[in-house]
Amino acid sequence: MILLLIPFALQGLAMFFDEFYFHRKRGLPLWERIGHPIDSLSVLACYSFIYFQPPTDLNMKIYIALCAFSCLLITKDEFVHTQHCEARENWLHAVLFVLHPITFLSAGLIWKDNLNPQFIALQPLVILLFMTYQILYWSPLWNKK
């Protein structure tokens, strides 16, 4: 079970550095201010689905489709990132792109085998809180001075 949690810890650490170091260092253009919460929404859809649905064959296929969509969606900002990010941030994004489907696989295995229902229940809340932070912090209304 602990091996299935490692990708979440690594992804959380990488997201922490991306958000609280790189994003704050360079600021985010409008496209990223809009796009990043949309990315989080796609992750929220995946984790909410497995929280609310039993792991049947059909639901597993739906979950895989939601995850595949999220994995493709998160790449949409790379056109902007090539113009605005330094090499270290781009490398971190590559790490996040690798971890993204691995965390979905881990969550799917935890869900399928009912290994840790509390962990599955926590994921939508964590993502919802992070998405709310993204929307509020990067909105023009939040004074960042």
Question: What is the secondary structure topology, with strand pairs?
Answer:
Blueprint: H1 2-26, H2 30-52, H3 57-73, H4 78-84, H5 87-112, H6 117-137
Please describe the structure with a list of short key phrases separated by commas or semicolons.
single chain; 145 residues; mainly alpha; globular
Description:
The protein has one domain. Helix 1 runs antiparallel to helix 5, helix 2 runs antiparallel to helix 3 and helix 3 packs antiparallel against helix 5. It is an all-alpha fold and 145 residues long. It contains six helices and no strands.
Write a concise synopsis of the structure shown:
The chain is mainly α.
Rounded to the nearest angstrom, the radius of gyration is 16 Å
What is the number of beta strands? 0
The global form is globular
H/E element string? HHHHHH
Provide the helix percentage: over 70%
Percentage of β-strand residues: under 5%
Query: How is the main sheet built?
Result: none
Mean pLDDT: 94
The total count of helices amounts to 6
Whole-number total of structural domains: 1
Intertermini distance: 43 Å
Low-confidence stretches: none
Broad structural category: mainly alpha
